[in-house]
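Each letter names a residue; structure tokens follow underneath. Both lines appear below:
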Amino acid sequence: MTAPPRILCLGAMLWDVIGHSAVRVLPGADLPGRIARQPGGVALNVALALARQGLAPAMLSAVGRDPAGEALVAEAGRRGVDTRWLWRDTGLVTDSYLAIESPEGLVAAIADARALETAGTALLAPLRDGRLGDAARPWRGTLVVDGNPSAPVLTEIARDPCLADADLRIVPASPDKATRLRVLIDHPRAIFHLNRAEAEALAGRSLPDAARAAEAVLALGARRVLVTDGAGTAADAAQGAPTLTATPRPVAAIRVTGAGDSFLAAHLAAESRGATRAEALTRAMNAASDHVCGKDQPCPP
């Protein structure tokens, strides 16, 4: 019998279509650039990054049985992600994400997540029906949860006895979706991964830097909070411990979508292998910098 996965990533699994301009993009502009189609979604981005770290993640998400969905599942599997527990429906179109990036970062994006929204709490079925666990024998491992599932799904995650033994890594997906994660803010086994804008959305106010942002979310009842701030300093704040900070090395930005997901995956992988808080933060910052400069291997400064 195949052993159950020890890392699950729950949330968006879709196709990213990302246009990148080499110059600033103004409203109405028609510019040359590059357009790429690649597997994406926060949860899948994290899973792919974990696979590159040598771990064996599995997905809990919704994917249609259309040609786009079949291609997405095949590509995720080829890259080392377990897709056996996906919720799939023949009547759904596979989700997609459309973004425009410039050297200044993300200009605008639209996410079509109707498959994920339709699945609802069915995403949790493998954790409840005995395939991965149930209330009597809860699944044990790390569950990465992005902010894309509906509020009822997140509420179920917060209180479901089938997840009583799970460690949670929470990542909002966007500032607009950050507030729906308040239901998990005081979960005793949760670690929050946020950017500064998402931390500000949770805290309800502007914050000057990553350290203050992490501490503000900590004050809401979170056990531990990591906050990134683009090319600025990142922070790791934990109850009863000093706040740590780390600054990324400067690199030329080739892409920005997925940088936070690479950060989370590298941090989780480092801690799973015994790294200290400071070591894990540094490795995560380096992984995010490598992603931004367009490579999966370390980039030059």
Remarks:
- The longest helix spans residues 277-292.
- The longest strand covers residues 105-112.
